[in-house]
């Protein structure tokens, strides 16, 4: 419904600013300046009000289901326009750093996802992740004893509990998702309400009651950078005392060229569906090219054998104690690889390590393909066209990470075999990865408890890898004895035989895991 407010009337606007809200009264009449006009329409302008300029003397304003076209005959139009601009600028000032860099729809989906206990469970049951964090904190007890700690993006609060185990005086657990209420419940049920204070909200928006000695967080996404939580982690340094500490302290992102013809054919074959010329009587082939482009924009999340890597990795380091949020808005990693084997180069593989540098000990958490699998897996980015390289030749180029408002990154890869001049590359969307491990049934084995002090988890947490990992890395893990917990070995007390999809595990009695 539209109301046209003009015609025989002179329009006069009386504005009544009050904080973030300004009220306007449209008054009509010949003696407006004397104050005896008739109020035609009264409305309030906030930063949520839909309004736009029409021509040189009009504004279209939507209030609820009513739209009003205001046509001005005096200089009051300019005053009204200035007032609207003030409201817009005020709204911009009130937006937090997080809101400025994030689409509303992305933030809503993100916090809903992490507000589910099932997702919190998935992370807690990653034994390598959880146990490494506890180990890093407890082995550096002196850095936490009687200290004030800030837990950024605390989730269920597990890291806050670890800090208390290490003797922290007080922990502020900041969590923006609905899981904050569950963290509060855990704090109360563990009788720690006087030492763990849950602050519901984004770290960019909450006010910490005091400066802190240590900041702890698990801000890591796929390929290290996904979800852009690292920026929130860096932002939290505003609450850190001089000479304070951060756990984790720094990270190394690794990349290396790989060869995997099966993966390339399989990935290209995903588009074969769109080759059909008679799908229920419809020719789909017109979309085949678009489907290929879309699928190749997807980074592939899975795991692989070290043998497919064609060169030593190049690493890019990020020091969380020194890096600025702006440093993560756009990153470029140049590379020069000397090939260790001949063959087709199908793309680049990525993984990362993070370090907890304490006063007593440095503890590393690695997602390398040579290490036990974590819920981050590894990530591979295919080239649009494979490149052929020979032993001793060099592959050079760069990887660009450009942050977007969907809490992720656009990835641009360029690569050239220097000796032949052949080039390739790709542009990918980290927000939309392809989870290749999804075809494997993920199951955790029951009835075995972890012996980590103060933390009782089922075997799913003890091992921390899916059945897919066991299938691929079983021989490697047995040779490296990574089945053995660094704190205490665990033994099967009964023979067990598991069949899950294509995976078959036989665990005889007495097997050390």
Automatic annotation (TrEMBL):
<keyword id="KW-0805">Transcription regulation</keyword>
<dbReference type="GO" id="GO:0035242">
    <property type="term" value="F:protein-arginine omega-N asymmetric methyltransferase activity"/>
</dbReference>
<dbReference type="InterPro" id="IPR055135">
    <property type="entry name" value="PRMT_dom"/>
</dbReference>
<dbReference type="GO" id="GO:0005737">
    <property type="term" value="C:cytoplasm"/>
</dbReference>
<keyword id="KW-0963">Cytoplasm</keyword>
<keyword id="KW-0156">Chromatin regulator</keyword>
<protein>
    <recommendedName>
        <fullName>Histone-arginine methyltransferase CARM1</fullName>
        <ecNumber>2.1.1.319</ecNumber>
    </recommendedName>
</protein>
<dbReference type="InterPro" id="IPR011993">
    <property type="entry name" value="PH-like_dom_sf"/>
</dbReference>
<feature type="domain" description="Protein arginine N-methyltransferase">
    <location>
        <begin position="252"/>
        <end position="410"/>
    </location>
</feature>
<dbReference type="InterPro" id="IPR029063">
    <property type="entry name" value="SAM-dependent_MTases_sf"/>
</dbReference>
<dbReference type="GO" id="GO:0032259">
    <property type="term" value="P:methylation"/>
</dbReference>
<dbReference type="Pfam" id="PF22528">
    <property type="entry name" value="PRMT_C"/>
</dbReference>
<dbReference type="Pfam" id="PF06325">
    <property type="entry name" value="PrmA"/>
</dbReference>
<keyword id="KW-0489">Methyltransferase</keyword>
<keyword id="KW-0949">S-adenosyl-L-methionine</keyword>
<keyword id="KW-0539">Nucleus</keyword>
<dbReference type="GO" id="GO:0005634">
    <property type="term" value="C:nucleus"/>
</dbReference>
<dbReference type="InterPro" id="IPR025799">
    <property type="entry name" value="Arg_MeTrfase"/>
</dbReference>
<keyword id="KW-0808">Transferase</keyword>
<dbReference type="GO" id="GO:0070611">
    <property type="term" value="F:histone H3R2 methyltransferase activity"/>
</dbReference>
<dbReference type="Pfam" id="PF11531">
    <property type="entry name" value="CARM1"/>
</dbReference>
<keyword id="KW-0804">Transcription</keyword>
